[in-house]
């Protein structure tokens, strides 16, 4: 059994984002860049009109002869002399001689000429390379590709990107006692909620390739199942069967498939029984069957491992002030469900490891180290934001 800090450090050192793939920009959302992106063009690539109006060559004139029009996308060359203007549209290329685009609302239009009735300080012209210059770094290795990033890259003409691979994750649910929601209730049975917890949390962190498997409390079946999953997936996240009961067989199944155990059990409450192992580049976690303990251990340990594999930064513990006294005479680290509001932490009264209801309103897990016997009102403590 190890301490929380040791477990987190070991996970961070053991997992690397080392598989790089090429993906199209249309499929890149949620991936993390594996290399810097440098622009091949200036943006805008030319002097560009910021609005609909008239491009004019101002030189003490109020009236201008209109020579034609330039639409967005047109490559028409127009040369303007003093007292001349051209009708222009947003995004269109501005003639070199023009030094202002006058809004259409600020002119009076005659047959073939205009009179400017209101002048503004702004030129309403975007200069070439105003947003980004050719050869300039646009995004850096390690940046996550969100909607805005992809939109910007598309505007630069980028079609392909080198990114860190997303993992294939197998969720393994063990137990003879489980029913699926919608099944008729049976005496001594329990409805499965952990698979739903894990699916939603995996999706939230950006994992798309998720498969679910169920195995009964049988040694032969468990060993065979784990062997198959190690062949086909990057991560195995098992829930249930990881404690020390006669029918807790996951650790046995991992050992039988030559998974190298990195640690088993953490000195914490809830969620003491947790397994972390490696087989070559495959990552294996065994989580408790209790729903709240499963949820908390995923947040604290599996989530950082996945973020590490994905090439993302690992979210660190934050600091807040507790609004109530916390007593810890267990000799274990505590992860307490609670609510954080403007840096103030409120710990919920019911902390049962089987109770998911308290997590509905929770947005924080308050961390009390094993050697801290009491936290007084107003003391600073560490906490982790809950991913819901």
Write structural notes for this entry.
With 388 residues, this protein is of the alpha/beta class. The protein folds into four domains: 4-18 and 166-310, MoaB/Mog-like domain (Molybdenum Cofactor Biosythetic Enzyme, Chain A, 3-Layer(aba) Sandwich); 20-41 and 132-164, Molybdopterin biosynthesis moea protein, domain 2 (Alpha-Beta Complex), CATH 3.90.105.10; 48-126, Molybdopterin biosynthesis moeA protein, domain 3 (Beta Complex), CATH 2.170.190; 318-385, MoeA, C-terminal, domain IV (Beta-clip, Beta Barrel), CATH 2.40.340.10. It is built from seven helices and 28 strands. It has helices at 4-14, 147-155, 194-205, 219-232, 250-256, 291-310, 357-361, and strands at 20-24, 37-38, 48-49, 53-56, 63-70, 84-88, 100-103, 107-109, 113-116, 125-126, 137-139, 160-164, 168-174, 178-179, 190-191, 209-215, 235-239, 260-264, 268-269, 275-279, 282-287, 318-322, 326-327, 333-341, 344-347, 364-368, 374-375, 380-385. The strands form eight sheets. The protein has a six-stranded mixed sheet, with no helix packed on it. A hairpin with a 2-residue loop joins β20 and β21 (282-287). α3 runs parallel beside α6.
């Amino acid at each position: 059994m190890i301490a929380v800090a040791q477990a987190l450090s070991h996970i961070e050192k053991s997992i690397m984002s080392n598989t790089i793939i090429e993906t199209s920009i249309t499929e890149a959302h949620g991936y993390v860049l594996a290399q810097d992106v440098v622009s091949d063009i200036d943006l805008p690539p030319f002097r560009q009109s910021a609005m609909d109006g008239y491009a004019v060559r101002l030189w003490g004139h109020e009236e201008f002869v209109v020579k034609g029009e330039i639409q967005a996308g047109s490559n028409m060359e127009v040369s303007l002399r003093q007292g001349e203007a051209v009708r222009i549209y947003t995004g269109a290329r501005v003639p070199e001689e023009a030094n202002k685009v006058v809004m259409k609302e600020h002119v009076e239009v005659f047959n073939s000429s205009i009179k400017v009735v209101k002048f503004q300080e702004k030129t309403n012209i975007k200069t070439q390379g105003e947003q980004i210059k050719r050869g300039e770094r646009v995004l850096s290795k390690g940046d996550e590709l969100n909607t805005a990033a992809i939109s910007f890259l598309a505007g630069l003409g980028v079609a392909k990107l080198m990114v860190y691979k997303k993992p294939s994750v197998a969720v393994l649910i063990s137990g003879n006692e489980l029913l699926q929601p919608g099944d008729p209730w049976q005496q001594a049975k329990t409805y499965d909620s952990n698979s739903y917890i894990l699916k939603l949390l995996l999706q939230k962190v950006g994992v798309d390739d998720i498969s679910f498997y169920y195995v009964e409390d049988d040694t032969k079946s468990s060993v065979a199942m784990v062997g198959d999953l190690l062949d086909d997936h990057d991560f195995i996240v098992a829930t249930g069967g990881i404690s020390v009961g006669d029918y807790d067989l996951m650790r046995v199944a991992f050992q039988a498939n030559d998974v190298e155990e990195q640690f088993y059990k953490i000195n914490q409450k809830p969620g003491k029984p947790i397994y972390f192992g490696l087989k070559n580049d495959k990552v294996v976690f065994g989580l408790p069957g209790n729903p709240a303990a499963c949820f908390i251990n995923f947040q604290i340990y599996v989530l950082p491992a996945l973020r590490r594999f994905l090439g993302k930064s690992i979210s660190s513990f934050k600091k807040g002030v507790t609004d109530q006294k916390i007593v810890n005479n267990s000799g274990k680290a505590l992860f307490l469900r609670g609510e954080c509001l403007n840096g103030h932490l409120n710990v919920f009264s019911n902390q049962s490891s089987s109770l998911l209801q308290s997590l509905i309103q929770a947005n924080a897990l308050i961390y009390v180290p094993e050697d801290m016997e009491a936290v007084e009102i107003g003391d600073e403590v560490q906490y982790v934001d809950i991913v819901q």
